[in-house]
Design a protein that fits this description.
By secondary structure, the chain is mainly α. The protein has a domain at 17-39 and 142-279. Helix content is 77%, strand content 4%. The chain has helices at residues 2-38, 40-63, 69-83, 88-108, 114-138, 144-169, 184-204, 215-240, 255-274; strands at 173-175, 179-183, 210-211, 278-279. The strands form 2 sheets. A two-stranded antiparallel ribbon has the order 1-2. A hairpin with a 3-residue loop joins strand 1 and strand 2 (179-183). Helix 3 (69-83) runs parallel beside helix 5 and helix 6 (144-169) packs across helix 9 (255-274). The longest helix has 37 residues, at 2-38. It is globular, with a radius of gyration of 20 Å.
Length: 280
């Protein structure tokens, strides 16, 4: 009897996880679409909370600490830079956080090797650079909200297309050492679905996008970047030997697990805009 009930619970587990994932997505996706569309201080406030959670996950994953002071110092620096808040108390808090980081580092030796130290700083730079470009893009023009929604769609189309096509066609593995479930068919399927969705939404949302490269090539670059972001996150989790970077979102893991591709896509979009290749 015990064996039968155990098997039944094991069979029910995937169904429960799927239900949890769908329920979480059905709540969070419309919410983030809405705050992005609304923009302003509501968007920036939620965005800050998202990146605080991302930095907390990275701090726990890479240093085994709740929130490394260097993460706090960098976060404050990004917010102060983009808000032009050259106020004494902000610099004071940032300075204290930096001193705390130095004290913390030498007193607890949270990062025992140069390799872990470099990895921690790389991840910190990656997350805060994405946050910086997120803020910069959101404040760029009246078209910014629709542009961000377009980026979301490309990332989700890449992810969904890769999952559906890869699961249907299967075939050769893409990077078995990093992510054994990813296939070349899924990789190509994600690109195709992203190109279709990207073109469709450019017309539907009436985005006045000006680029020095064809729109198809631009979408392809962003979709390839989404694939790369997913693989980077998978390789980092494999390095640390964990399934998820966090447990904040039921059925999905943490912020880093769900927004890994989007973080890198926003960085790429920000760089394209910075060099004048894309004008929002």
């Amino acid at each position: 009897m015990v064996s039968m009930s155990l098997k039944k619970s094991q069979l029910m587990q995937p169904q429960f996880e799927l239900f949890t994932r769908i329920l979480s997505a059905s709540i969070l996706v419309p919410f983030f679409l809405w705050i992005t569309y609304v923009g302003g201080w509501i968007f920036l406030g939620v965005l800050t909370l998202v990146f605080i959670c991302a930095l907390r996950e990275w701090s726990r994953l890479s240093t085994n600490s709740i929130f490394h002071p260097l993460c706090l110092a960098t976060l404050i620096g990004v917010i102060a830079y983009h808000s032009h808040a050259y106020v004494a108390y902000i610099h004071a808090i940032g300075g204290l956080a930096l001193l705390g980081a130095i004290y913390y580092q030498y007193s607890t030796i949270a990062l025992p090797s140069i390799q872990r130290w470099v990895l921690f700083l790389s991840g910190l730079a990656y997350i805060t650079t994405s946050m910086s470009f997120f803020i910069q893009i959101s404040q760029h023009s009246a078209n910014s909200s629709f542009f961000l929604l377009w980026l979301y769609a490309i990332v989700w189309a890449t992810d969904s297309g890769a999952y559906l096509v890869g699961r249907t066609l299967k075939g050769p593995k893409l990077c078995p050492m990093i992510s054994p479930n990813k296939t070349w068919s899924g990789f190509i399927g994600g690109l195709v679905v992203a190109i279709i969705a990207g073109h469709y939404l450019l017309k539907t949302l009436n985005i006045s996008l000006s680029a020095s490269i064809p729109n198809t090539l631009l979408i392809l670059i962003l979709s390839l970047t989404a694939h790369a972001g997913d693989l980077i996150e998978s390789s980092v989790k494999r390095y640390f030997g964990v399934k998820n970077a966090g447990e904040l979102i039921p059925g999905h893991g943490g912020v880093l697990d769900r927004l890994d591709s989007l973080f890198l896509v926003v960085i790429m979009a920000g760089l394209l805009a910075l060099f004048g290749i894309v004008r929002i």
